[in-house]
From TrEMBL:
Superkingdom, taxonomy of origin: Bacteria
PANTHER family: ARSENICAL PUMP-DRIVING ATPASE ARSENITE-TRANSLOCATING ATPASE, ATPASE GET3
A GO MF label: ATP hydrolysis activity
Similarity-based family: Belongs to the arsA ATPase family.
Protein name in the entry: ArsA family ATPase
Organism expressing this protein natively: Yinghuangia soli
Domain annotation ArsA HSP20-like: ranges: 334-394
Domain named ArsA/GET3 Anion-transporting ATPase-like: residues: 2-255
Pfam families, alphabetized: ArsA_ATPase (PF02374), ArsA_HSP20 (PF17886)
């Protein structure tokens, strides 16, 4: 199984340097590693001193790097859809766009980056050796600042839900009746290309979700000391927890020379990210550039858990299998839905029940949580936020609970 480490954090905290150093150190330890530059900048090229393209290039033995070519990815996707619409465009007299006219829309980069990640994580196995192995043991992804990253990580689930509402599977079965319905009842039915496009997109979204939800995928958060970074960390903790993303460790980068991480800051970070390690990295005299400097810088970083070296068995990631966005507890006749939301504040929290789903909003982030079958037959009695845990109390609905 390929281990995936998503590196994000506070803007300007040194995410790219930490990501590149993590990848370089893992490769020198014998791990076949890919660094995927997905933050939309050329910073990784500057840090590595190597020109990157959409295909992995070898930086040094076992260390490869690639970037997300947003324009090329968007152009390929747009032209594919345009080709499917060619007949409609010709019918209404609209000329199709040429490739050089196409520009990526805002926000497309993050969605395309996740698709490229899924493509690399699902790369063909290496047939060399006695038993086939994944092409990469570790993929380190250099992502944008955490506010953008949290929204991007929620995108596959949201898009899959929207597509299911617009083109549910049961309606696809009715497309064979399209000519009959159109002739007899005058009911318009979508063309076949729409269903084919939906199936393809859903397949790609499922692949992305499989990578993001895999036990071997986690977050390495890079931050700084100071009040502004602390406020960003609080928002990040709530957003990542809401979407069920596990944070392995928090790197407090560029702590001033001769200083140590304040105890209150360390305690706060451990409370915001339960189970994550917290490491402080001192400010460097010179910016680490190139593989040698990055590997030296990585000596101050904690090792990546769950990465198997050649010939070794992969260690289990403690608690990963049971990690999820919510749990259900019994409290007498009540059932309590427990949603971890460290860092969330009451003023930013909003709850709404919509049918069999609970809509949880924390600031700019929202998730629709499908209710377990037992809670669907209950009504909400109340809710409270304490100690980083949102607890929603449900009581049985007599109208449906014991229906015969």
């Amino acid at each position: 199984m390929t281990r995936v480490l998503l590196v994000t954090g506070t803007g300007g905290a040194g995410r790219t340097t930490v990501a590149a150093a993590t990848a370089a150190a893992a490769a020198r330890a014998g791990t076949r590693t890919l660094l995927l530059a997905a933050d939309g900048t050329a910073d990784a090229e500057t840090v590595l001193g190597v020109a990157l393209g959409s295909e992995p290039v070898e930086v040094e033995p076992r260390f490869f790097a690639a970037r997300v070519a947003v324009r090329e990815e968007f152009e390929r996707e747009f032209l594919l859809v345009q080709d499917q619409l060619r007949g409609v465009l010709a019918l209404i007299g609209v000329d199709p766009l040429d490739p050089e006219e196409i520009t990526a829309v805002p926000g497309a980069a993050d969605a395309l980056a996740l698709r490229v990640l899924a493509r690399h994580a699902g790369a063909a196995e290496d047939p060399s050796g006695p038993a086939p192995r994944p092409l990469w043991d570790l993929i380190v992804v250099d992502l944008p600042p955490v506010d953008r990253t949290a929204l991007a990580l929620a995108l596959p689930e949201s898009l899959a839900r929207y597509l299911d509402r617009l083109l549910p599977v049961e309606r696809q079965a009715a497309r064979a009746l399209r000519p009959v319905l159109a002739a007899v009842a005058g009911v318009p039915m979508p063309d076949e290309w729409l269903y084919e496009t939906a199936r393809r997109v859903i397949g790609e979204l499922d692949a992305v979700r499989a990578v993001l939800d895999a036990p071997g995928t986690s977050v390495r958060l890079v931050t700084r000391s100071g009040a502004v970074a602390a406020a960003t960390d609080r928002r990040a903790a709530a957003a990542l927890a809401l979407y069920g993303r596990r944070v392995d460790d928090v790197i407090v980068n560029a702590v001033p020379h001769g200083a140590t991480l304040p105890r209150e800051r360390g305690t706060s970070l451990r409370a915001l990210f339960p189970g994550a390690g917290v490491a402080a990295v001192g400010a460097a005299d010179d910016e680490p550039l190139g593989s040698d400097a990055l590997a030296e810088f990585a000596e101050s970083l904690p090792p990546v858990p769950g990465v198997a070296l050649p010939g070794e068995a992969s260690d289990a990631l403690g608690g990963t299998e049971s990690y999820g966005p919510f749990g259900v507890e019994a409290d007498g006749e009540r059932l309590v839905l427990v949603v971890p939301l460290p860092g969330a504040e009451r003023g930013d929290l909003d709850l709404l029940r919509r049918g069999d789903e609970l809509v949880v909003t924390v600031g700019a982030h929202r998730r629709l949580i499908p209710l377990p079958s037992a809670l669907r037959r209950c009504t909400i009695e109340g809710a409270g936020l304490r100690g980083g845990m949102l607890r929603v109390r449900f009581v049985p609905d007599p109208a449906v609970w014991m229906r015969t």
